Amino acid sequence: MTGKQRAKLRALANPIETILYIGKEGITDAVIKECYDALEARELIKGCVQQGAPMSAREALTELCSRMGAEPVQQIGRRFVLYRQSSENPKITLE
Known about the structure:
By secondary structure, the protein is of the alpha+beta class. The protein has a single domain, classed as Translation Initiation Factor IF3. It contains 3 helices and 4 strands.
């Protein structure tokens, strides 16, 4: 992914709400399923690592990206953004 593409995705992610939360249990099967479904429906999602979570936002982003086949867009504090093009219904086009 190029810097321009990443910048476009960061701009698109700015107004969206956080929909994925990593809690004290860490990344569970339920979190993986929720992340997969959200990426398939939206392509670009924002997540947050809660205060008592056993991992940092960087670790959560890295693990989710490797398990989902997604691209990390950004990570600031406890929030992160990831992107994966939908296999059935692509909405975001990257030049």
